[in-house]
From TrEMBL:
Name of this chain's protein: Small ribosomal subunit biogenesis GTPase RsgA
Keyword Nucleotide-binding attached: yes
Cofactor comment: Binds 1 zinc ion per subunit.
Binding sites annotated in the UniProt record for GTP: 200-208
Top enzyme class: hydrolase
Length: 319
């Protein structure tokens, strides 16, 4: 996402003001190394009340946060101040672009793309894909679909027709075979400048893809464990990893999991974003788009502006 020069200038100004303020606070505080300037950093992981923060120069610093600061998680941009013992104190939290929550619990922030990974085997299911999309849409998170194991398909033409439906709605789709090494470089380029999260059901190849993108992942996990003195627990913590070819991945077993929290009919409708332009055309303001007369959504179905598979999925999900 490229910012206009004016937006960049505003961001820099806000940042400079925050740093100046953080320095002022630091000057009044005894526990801080007064020679150390406040710096901006990226939260790599949180463990209990501690944060592992990466400085702009790439150092990992174990930090605690001031009490008046919201709890930070992987993906957060913060201002921190080094203390004497090579540790730090987080003094400010930058405004978040977005957040990923599970059962109201904050998991990660500043996500550019949720990558939903599906596969030829176990074969992708439209209703499951739509459920993921509903959750993502309701948290305002952009989504990419990644279709893995394409070398197993005997009818790739049909696969592309199936996913053209999602492309038409506006979701980017990547085709991939980790095993046959097809589409890897294209995907790397697509992930290049973004922070992403990988989701998907068991067996679709999430771990295989992550190992492909970040071959030194285990090394990095060890490095983080040492720094945070967490031992092997780190792998279960939600952590931000840099992808060597560009971009970042926020990952943990908990992040990859997926819950369709009890969604209201309103949230379900909100998840079918291509319905939106037609909803104002319904005769009844409280139209549920099921069997009401003069329904904009049903009319759009007749004119092929809404795909019948998506409409069927909507009907199956609402209660
Ligand atoms: N044929 C084929 N198999 C693949 C491909 N990518 C991964 N696999 C295999 O699919 C199986 C599941 O892959 P994983 O990477 O463990 O899948 P996962 O999504 O991490 O699964 P969970 O850990 O259960 O969530 C493994 O046996 C992989 O070797 C591919 O492109 N083609
Ligand atoms: Zn309607």
């Amino acid at each position: 996402m490229s910012l206009t020069r004016r937006q960049k200038w505003r961001l820099e100004k806000i940042q400079a003001e925050r740093i100046a303020r953080a320095n002022k606070v630091a000057d009044n505080s005894q526990d801080l190394n007064t020679d150390a300037k406040a710096q901006t950093g990226l939260v790599i992981t949180r463990y209990g009340q501690h944060l592992l923060v990466e400085s702009n120069s790439g150092n990992l610093v174990q930090c605690t946060a001031r009490r008046n600061i919201d709890l930070s998680v992987a993906g957060d941009q913060v201002i921190f101040q080094a203390t004497d013992n090579n540790k730090g104190i987080v003094t400010a939290l930058f405004k978040r672009d977005n957040t990923l929550k599970r059962s109201k619990k904050l998991i990660a922030t500043n996500i550019d793309e949720l990558c939903l990974i599906v596969a030829i085997e176990p074969h992708y299911q439209f209703d499951l894909i739509d459920r993921y999309l509903i959750v993502a849409e309701n948290q305002n998170l952009p989504i990419r679909l990644i279709v893995n194991k394409i070398e197993l398909s005997s009818n790739i033409k049909q696969v592309k027709i199936d996913f053209a439906m999602y492309e038409a709605i506006g979701y980017p789709v990547s085709y991939l075979s980790v095993k046959a090494q097809t589409g890897i470089n294209t995907l790397k380029a697509q992930l290049n400048d973004k922070t992403q999260i990988f989701l998907g059901q068991s067996g679709v190849g999430k771990s295989s893809l992550i190992n492909e993108l970040i071959p030194e992942l285990n090394l990095r996990v060890n490095q983080i464990s040492t720094k945070s003195k967490l031992g092997k627990h780190t792998t279960t913590n939600t952590t931000l990893y840099h992808i060597p070819s560009g971009g970042d991945l926020i990952d943990s077993p908990g992040v990859r999991e997926f819950h369709l929290d009890n969604l209201s009919n309103k949230e379900i409708l909100n998840g079918f974003k291509e319905f939106k332009p037609f909803i104002n055309q319904c005769k009844f303001r409280n139209c549920a788009h099921i069997n009401e007369p003069n329904c904009g959504v049903k009319n759009a179905l007749e004119t092929d502006d809404i795909h019948p598979k998506r409409y069927a999925s909507y009907l199956a999900l609402i209660t």
